[in-house]
Amino acid sequence: MHPAADRIRNVALVGHRGAGKTSLHEALLFEAGVTSRLGSVTDGTTVSDSDADEQARQMSISATLNSFEWQERKINLLDTPGEPSFVADALGALRVCESAVFVVNAVMGVEVSTSRLWARAAELDIARMLFVNMLDRERADFFRTLEQLKKAFGSHVVATEIPIGAEHEIEGVIDLVDMKAFHQDSADRKGFAEMPIPEAQADLAQEYREKLMDEVCEVSDALMERYLEGEEISHEEVVGALKEGTNHGEIFPVVCGVATSNLGTSRLLDAIVEDLPSPVKHGALKVGELELQAAEDRELFAFVFKTRADQFAGRINLLRVYQGALRADSQVLNTRAHAKERIGQLITFAGKETPHVQEFGPGDIGAVAKLKETRAGDWLAARDEPIEMPRLKLPAPVMAFAVEPKSRGDEDKVFASLRRLQEEDPTIDLHRDQQTGEQIVAGLSQVHVEVIVDRLRERFGVEVTLKPPRVPYQETIRRSATAHGRHKKQSGGRGQFGDCHIEIEPLTTGEGFEFVDKIKGGVIPSSFIPAVEKGVREAMDSGVLAGYPVKDVRVRLFDGSHHSVDSSEIAFKMAGIQAMKQALEQADPVLLEPIMLVTLSVPEEFVGDVIGDLNSRRGRPQGMEPVGAMTEIKAEVPMAEMLTYAPDLRSITGGQGDYTLEFLRYEEVPGHLSQKVVEQASDERAAAHA
Ligand SMILES: Nc1nc2c(ncn2[C@@H]2O[C@H](COP(=O)(O)OP(=O)(O)O)[C@@H](O)[C@H]2O)c(=O)[nH]1
Ligand SMILES: [Mg+2]
């Protein structure tokens, strides 16, 4: 019916943007016979990156799943985006796989995302293998890259093959386990034929064979002893130890090739099957009290790791079965919504085809369409069991834009479509601007938000314009002050009366808000005190300087009075607002701005220009270090100076620089700049009321 769990390999292709993951994914599908032609990223003809925006930008934005057979195993292969703005999909994919193949560019070596994703894979404790790609390129160097990898990820990174030839003369590889050489039969660009180890490389091969054996024998003491005594270690023993070591993160095998000419891919497929663990071998998944085992005879638990919204096809959920089996035409429970879901068809992906299957067994990964409630992060189970996957640590959305529909009346459609895109991308934040009422879309970067706009158009047919991002300023106070608020109205019948005295004082940054009730003798009845607090909070939503939210203030309510007939909640709330506004005016209010940590990766020759530019943006460089062929620069820069940085960095570095932003903290805006923000806010208010 479905493949046995020990015959499944779930593998994520991860790495820095441009290392060749999508091309490798394409080559693996071609090699496995899923497709009959090798597509290319430059022509926009690959199976993965099939979205129009991915083709236009020549970069992967979503994870793509394809399933196929190799050596009687089922491989579920996930191509993932390397661009940091779309890291959610890469992390989501890593989480449901036992293993990852890190794709590394043999010219650039270890890059920023390579290291970051490595750290996440280590946290998730998954088996890792590396594919050194682009050996055909000028200045590509397998051995230099290997040394870099060892330096970055430790001595357990070890080559199981080395290339024959280099750059445009790359021909094939030497397998260090069997000490056999293979070259590509260039006629059909498929498969590998055995050849004698070239004379000139015999010594080199022997040297690297020994390095491999040193690592492999470390896996078991018994093996090491025999190895040191010069005993023969059999092929089976080497393969067994390699697999054991890889599964436990004690060995990280390195293979190599050229994705775009399908060189080395059949050997990579062999290595995936032989060295990487199956769901059974990798062991149970502990989630809270539950221990999920990839076993047939247990009840179903399947985790939805990705949702894709589509105007026509509806919602497609990608899921991983951890235990039991998921059947077509069955009923399961969504444990978050506590609701039944009808499972219709089960879908797999194989190139352009989407064959349906009757069942996904334990350990398998596949898709299901048209579920009502279910979305990424949910569990589908046989019964309503409280189960929650630990949350992914994702970067915070720091780049906000206001979106406006191009045609009036499309507001609801825009919002509904944004909501659906948010379902598939947890790093999107949607909210309304308190002051302007504008719909704000925040993402991880400018490119991220631009992609969201493209998707609104392509998938939902709505056109929007982006307005320059706004900085989420805040306000706070620098000293204490007291104030009196009194709301009194006498108009005919019953009047209104509320009266309060408050004192406010600064809290340390990040403490937020504290309300202390110091009323004695019931001068304000306790039933009205929450109303005063409500008023105070409302006044804090929009500060007295420029209308930004007020933070880090303690408010002490210490006196007041009431009237037995005329007092009401609304009257005390009004008094609270009044008192707070007055108090803020007198407490030396200041404007705060978000400070970001910007991490840049640029070629060395641009470092000077990039730092100079950061200085002109009030940036404070924090350090610099070489990472592979690039230099990584860290600097603290106010968000206000980084709003449209992407095109500037692109022009400084000729498109070769990358950056990410991370929120650090709020800091006071320098006086002259603060004045500008205050003036701008008052102009905007004037315009809104005109
Ligand atoms: N010469 C050469 N180019 C490659 C190779 N692999 C990928 N490329 C090219 O490098 C670019 C980035 O590849 P892509 O697969 O999109 O990288 P990804 O971002 O890791 O998915 C594309 O233009 C590919 O055609 C390779 O092995 N050799
Ligand atoms: Mg890609």
The gist of it:
By secondary structure, the chain is α+β, with helices and mostly antiparallel strands. Helices cover 29% and strands 31% of the residues. The protein folds into 5 domains: 5-282, Rossmann fold (3-Layer(aba) Sandwich), CATH 3.40.50; 289-381, Translation factors (Elongation Factor Tu (Ef-tu), domain 3); 399-470, Elongation Factor G (Translational Gtpase), domain 3 (Alpha-Beta Plaits); 475-587, Ribosomal Protein S5, domain 2 (2-Layer Sandwich), CATH 3.30.230; 591-672, Alpha-Beta Plaits, CATH 3.30.70.
Overview of the molecule:
The protein is of the alpha+beta class and 690 residues long. It folds into five domains: 278 residues, Rossmann fold (3-Layer(aba) Sandwich); 93 residues, Translation factors (Elongation Factor Tu (Ef-tu), domain 3, Beta Barrel), CATH 2.40.30.10; 72 residues, Alpha-Beta Plaits, CATH 3.30.70.870; 113 residues, Ribosomal Protein S5, domain 2 (2-Layer Sandwich), CATH 3.30.230; 82 residues, Alpha-Beta Plaits, CATH 3.30.70. The chain contains 17 helices and 36 strands. Strand 4, helix 4 and strand 5 form a beta-alpha-beta unit. Helix 1 crosses helix 9 and helix 13 packs across helix 14. The structure holds guanosine-5'-diphosphate and magnesium ion.
Record keyword descriptors for this entry.
Alpha-Beta Plaits, 5 domains, binds guanosine-5'-diphosphate, 29% helix, binds magnesium ion, elongated, single chain, Elongation Factor Tu (Ef-tu), domain 3, Rossmann fold, alpha+beta, seven-stranded mixed β-sheet, eight-stranded antiparallel β-sheet, 690 residues
